[in-house]
């Protein structure tokens, strides 16, 4: 546009002859949210919604679990807990559910209501906003609970406490189902010198100054990122199976022994945690994994760096104990403490190697990193093939 035309346009705008501005009416709370509100409710932000829906491994797994088990959903009452935009509720309705309650405490439910209406499921899906511990469902019981309850390293920022509450209050005592209902947590030794140098050792020398005090902070925070198979030093070892069909809040205190047999020589920079998820009530075996062998998910893998890296040899065995728990009595899974102790040698002549404790207080996942990781994963493999990819590696699990 020439400067002459621009001046003419501005002149007309000043006289009200060619107003080009307009105001969008604010009809619900989500449209009134600003940059001050979204940190408290980031799940209502369009980027976070897109990030969740682009996790093809997770979405296709839930889709298969629901639509491949229509006989379980047909005519049933379903509770979709922490529903987000209601995709799983839509799957349940499509599978023939008689009623679906889609519940979420986020303002994202205002989008959910529009999506449900636009897809013609208003008569089946009822969207409700609020904490599951504070709302009342317009039903005495439900047949099925569908919830994406897993968190980082399985527990951190998990919503399994909500599932346990809903199970005890509403789920039918005989024949009630939870999708998914089981998950198993694994640990393995990892070599990740590049990430450790970039995020931990970097603090030792910052523009010519010693900032080691910040290194002490950084070493206590786990990192969530993609770990390559070739970075693993040991076999994976199962440390906990969580079964939501019968678990209590006390079961969310994970305390387990472990045994790591090294498969190659290298430097052990830390340990990595990941998990498998199971829909055990499916009529066919259905599961997905967040392990390094499988296509990436939003959870990635969670790496806990040791203060001092260790040189390890092939076939050497390290063992000890690990625990994950919330220090708060209310089972606040936003705040997880991880304690770790490692020994080497025969049990009768065990040598102490190291002990660490970490504090999981933030997700540690930069959005841009997750977007790139998930997009790359989706380009490498079709989601329908990702559901059971990890099964071919199950031989690595130490029984």
Automatic annotation (TrEMBL):
One GO BP: methylation
Chain intervals for the UniProt region annotation (Disordered): 380-399
Keywords: Methyltransferase, S-adenosyl-L-methionine, Transferase
A family per Pfam: PrmA
PROSITE patterns (UniProt xref): SAM_MT_PRMT (PS51678)
GO cellular component entries: nucleus
Gene3D superfamilies, per database record: Hnrnp arginine n-methyltransferase1, Vaccinia Virus protein VP39
Enzyme Commission identifier(s): 2.1.1.319
EC main group: transferase
GO molecular function, one term: histone methyltransferase activity
Name of this chain's protein: type I protein arginine methyltransferase
Biological source species: Glossina morsitans morsitans (Savannah tsetse fly)
């Amino acid at each position: 546009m020439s400067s002459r035309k621009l001046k003419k346009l501005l002149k007309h705008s000043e006289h009200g002859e060619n107003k080009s501005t307009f105001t969008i009416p604010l009809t619900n709370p989500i449209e009134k949210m600003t940059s001050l509100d979204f940190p408290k409710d980031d799940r209502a932000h369009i980027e976070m919604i897109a990030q969740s829906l682009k996790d093809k491994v997770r979405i296709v797994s839930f889709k298969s679990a629901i639509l491949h088990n229509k006989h379980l959903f047909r005519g049933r009452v379903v509770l979709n807990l922490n529903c987000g935009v209601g995709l799983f509720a839509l799957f349940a309705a499509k599978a023939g559910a008689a009623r679906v309650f889609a519940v979420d405490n986020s303002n994202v439910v205002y989008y959910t209501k529009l999506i449900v209406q636009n897809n013609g499921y208003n008569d089946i899906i009822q969207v409700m906003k609020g904490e599951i511990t504070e709302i009342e469902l317009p039903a005495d019981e439900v047949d099925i609970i569908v919830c994406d309850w897993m968190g980082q390293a399985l527990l951190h920022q998990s919503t399994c406490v909500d599932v346990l509450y809903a199970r005890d209050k509403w789920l039918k005592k005989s024949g009630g189902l939870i999708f998914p209902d089981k998950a198993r947590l694994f640990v393995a030794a990892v070599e990740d010198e590049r990430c450790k140098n970039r995020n931990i050792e970097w603090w030792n020398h910052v523009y010519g100054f010693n900032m080691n005090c910040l290194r002490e902070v950084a070493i206590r925070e786990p990192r969530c990122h993609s770990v390559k198979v070739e970075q693993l030093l040991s076999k994976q070892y199962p440390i906990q199976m969580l079964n939501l069909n019968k678990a209590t809040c006390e079961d969310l205190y994970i305390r387990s022994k472990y045994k790591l047999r090294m498969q190659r020589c290298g430097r052990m920079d830390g340990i990595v945690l990941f998990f498998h998820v199971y829909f055990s009530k499916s009529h066919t075996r259905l599961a997905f994994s967040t392990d390094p062998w499988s296509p990436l998910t939003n959870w990635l893998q969670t790496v806990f760096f040791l203060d001092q890296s260790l040189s390890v040899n092939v076939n050497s065995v390290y063992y000890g104990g690990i625990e994950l728990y919330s220090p708060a009595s209310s089972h606040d899974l936003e705040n997880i403490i991880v304690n770790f102790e490692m020994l080497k040698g025969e049990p009768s002549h065990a040598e102490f190697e190291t002990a660490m404790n970490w504090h999981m207080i933030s997700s540690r996942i930069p959005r841009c990193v997750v977007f790139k990781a998930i997009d790359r994963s989706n380009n490498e493999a079709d989601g329908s093939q990702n559901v059971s990819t990890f099964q071919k590696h199950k031989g690595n699990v130490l029984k």
